[in-house]
Specification:
The strands form two sheets. The chain has a seven-stranded mixed sheet. Strands 3-4 form a two-stranded antiparallel sheet. It is an alpha+beta fold and about 290 residues long. The protein has two domains: about 150 residues, no CATH class; about 120 residues, no CATH class.
Length: about 290
C-alpha cells in the first residue's frame, strides 16, 4: 500500500495531492465497509497488494534510467487498471461454489507472471498484446473454476425426462419440499398427500411451498409449478385452484409415477443453470448444516 501511494505521488505530483488523498480515503473506506465480509475483504487486500507490486515495479524500472525505461513503465502502468478484474469476476460468480479469494489470487498471479518479462528485460514489441491476453486470462480463471465446480456438482444428479431430479430438499427458511425437479429455467415443487380427496388446505400448503422454493432459487413465482403427489387411482391429472386473497395458484394433483405428464405441460421460455446449482446446494431434509 505504501509503495502504491508513493507511485501515485510521483505520477500525480504535488498539484494533484488532493486527488491522491481522496483515492486513499476511498480505498480505506472500501476496506472498512467490507470488513465483515471476509471473502470480499480478502479479495480487496489481494487486489491492493497486486496493484502495489505493479506500482513498485514502475518505480524500480524508472530508477534504472535505461533507454526503454519510460516504455516499460508505461506497460506496467497499463496493468494497474486491470488489477481489480479477477476480484470482480470472482465475487460476482453466483452461487458461491469456489473460494473467491483463491480465484482472485490465481488471477492476480497470472497478471504478475505476465508482467515479469517487462520488469526483467524491459519493454518488448508484443508487450501490449500480452497485457490484453493477461487481462482476458485473469478474468477467465474465476469463471473456469466456477464452471468446473458446477459440472462436478451436477454431474452425479439423477434426471427425469431431461429435468434434474434433486429429490427432497429444504429451503433456507426450513420449508420441506418432498421432491424438487428443475428444467430449463423452471421448476416443479412436489408435495406428498396421503389423504384423499385433496382439500383446499393441502393444496394451499403446496402452493406456498412452491412460492418459498421460487424465492430460494431466485426464480419468478410463475416458473415454479406446485404439484401434489397423491395416489388418486384415476390415472390422470387434475388441477386444484386455490386463492387465499394473497396467493392464487393452480395446483396439479397427479400420481407419483406420472410426473412426466407435468413435465410435458411446463414450457420454459429460457435456459438457466444458476437455479439448478442453487437448488443442488439446498440440503436434504435429513441433513444437518
Amino acid at each position: 500500500m505504501a509503495l502504491l501511494l508513493c507511485w501515485c505521488y510521483l505520477v500525480l505530483g504535488p498539484n494533484l495531492l488532493a486527488a491522491l488523498l481522496l483515492g486513499t480515503g476511498a480505498v480505506l473506506g472500501t476496506v472498512w465497509t467490507v470488513r465483515h465480509h471476509r471473502p470480499i475483504a480478502l479479495c480487496t487486500v489481494i487486489t491492493i497488494l497486486t496493484a502495489a507490486a505493479f506500482a513498485g515495479s514502475c518505480v524500480v524500472t524508472i530508477n534504472r534510467q535505461t533507454a526503454d525505461a519510460a516504455d516499460a513503465a508505461a506497460v506496467l502502468t497499463g496493468y494497474l487498471p486491470i488489477t481489480p478484474v479477477p476480484a470482480l469476476v470472482a465475487c460476482f460468480q453466483r452461487p458461491e461454489l469456489v473460494s473467491a479469494p483463491r480465484s482472485t489470487l490465481i488471477g492476480s498471479g497470472v497478471l504478475l507472471l505476465s508482467a515479469t518479462p517487462v520488469v526483467l528485460i524491459g519493454a518488448y514489441p508484443p508487450a501490449d498484446v500480452v497485457l490484453v491476453a493477461a487481462a482476458a486470462a485473469a478474468a477467465a480463471v474465476p469463471s473456469l473454476r466456477h464452471r468446473r465446480a458446477a459440472a462436478a456438482l451436477t454431474a452425479s444428479l439423477p434426471t427425469l425426462h431431461g429435468w434434474t431430479d434433486l429429490g427432497a430438499r429444504r429451503t433456507p427458511d426450513g420449508t420441506h419440499v418432498d421432491r424438487l425437479l428443475l428444467g430449463a429455467g423452471a421448476a416443479i415443487a412436489c408435495s406428498t398427500a396421503d389423504r384423499r380427496p385433496v382439500t383446499d388446505r393441502i393444496a394451499l400448503t403446496a402452493a406456498r411451498r412452491a412460492v418459498t422454493t421460487a424465492d430460494a432459487l431466485g426464480l419468478p413465482t410463475h416458473r415454479v409449478q406446485p404439484v401434489i403427489l397423491s395416489a388418486t387411482g384415476t390415472g390422470g391429472m387434475r388441477r386444484h385452484l386455490v386463492n387465499d386473497g394473497h396467493l392464487a395458484a393452480s395446483v396439479i394433483i397427479i400420481e407419483p409415477d406420472r410426473l412426466d405428464q407435468v413435465i410435458a405441460r411446463v414450457h420454459p421460455r429460457r435456459r438457466g443453470r444458476r437455479p439448478v446449482l442453487t437448488a443442488a446446494l439446498l440440503p436434504a431434509p435429513g441433513e444437518v448444516r
